[in-house]
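Summary for the funding panel

The consortium committed to producing paired sequence-structure records for every protein in the target list. Below we show the first two records in order, beginning with the earlier of the two.
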Amino acid sequence: MIELVSHSAEQTRAIAAGVATLARAGDLIVLAGQMGAGKTAFAQGFARELGIHEPVTSPTYTLVHSYTGGSTTLHHADLYRLEHTAEVDDLALAELLEDDAIVLVEWGDVVDLGPHLHIELRLADDPLDGSDVDVDQREICITSSDKRWLPRWERLEAAVEEWTVS
């Protein structure tokens, strides 16, 4: 498990860029976290690192946006509005992975999508010392159920080391 702290949306984008440098076609990356935790900011930084220069927005109503940058295709999905597993099946995320693409899924923790890199973004809790809450601070936890990330794990830790919780 990698535990990180971001103090701004731009730092969240930078963390995402670090992850993107190691992402490969066929990777499924699930973004979890409450509303406003920074999932879309993460997706923006991830896409920017892949060479995608068009605006990246949450595909809440269209369900999937596809972007091409450099030699990589990124499919960005949002499962927030889906209520049934059958609706998720209709998105055919597995077929999108076969498209030599990376699939990034917001709210992907609502169903079992199979092996994936899991990134949970959380709003910062109230400090125990009574000091003011940093409203821009996010706690980011990275885990993986995808063995294809094992050989990349040390490089992933190094890519995001600047934001590691000590």
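The next record, for a separate protein in the list, is shown here:
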Amino acid sequence: MGEIYTTAITVFLGFFAIMNPIANTAAFAGLAGNRDRSEQVQIAAKALLITFCIIVAFAFLGKAIFHMFGITLAALRITGGVLVFLVGYHMLQGGGSDMHSAEKDDGSDIAISPLAVPLLAGPGTIATAMNYSASGGIVGITITVSVFAVLCLITFFCFVFSSKILLLIGKSGLSIVTRLMGLILAVIGTQMLIEGIAEAVRIAPA
């Protein structure tokens, strides 16, 4: 039971850092801050529902995708580690990443793009979900999906109360949170990379 709790906390921290609800709240406010409250709730709910469905799909189909394309878990960990590290590195510099940033609203449905994809369900988030779920069997999938559902709920409330949250923490607070999440992400990415390389060396033919 203790191992499950430890895994759940690790998965939560990984997802929390890469989705960064606080920083994404600023993006949400910039995209939907001029809409009325009910419309903001609808946009937030739709974006997070789409995000959740995408992550669940990759969590459950991860191994099938591996077999279909001949991908190994080691390759996923190495690639995912690089992606996660790059997102964290850009956040440490005080900015976003091309993989983890909102594009300018062009009048399309912002709940789908850029909020759901790529802001919330970007390559880093998908790689993280596949890494955690594929390496832990049905227990890993259950923990990954459950933890991500909790994080989506937290993000929803952050979005709905975006104006109050940003007023409370201010620009300097947002910068500190972004850099802290970036550091956590960079470390998680490095750990995934190390595990991937170790696994690749272990399974490589002599």
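Regarding this second record: The radius of gyration is 17 Å. Residues 2-18+38-103+120-199 form one domain.
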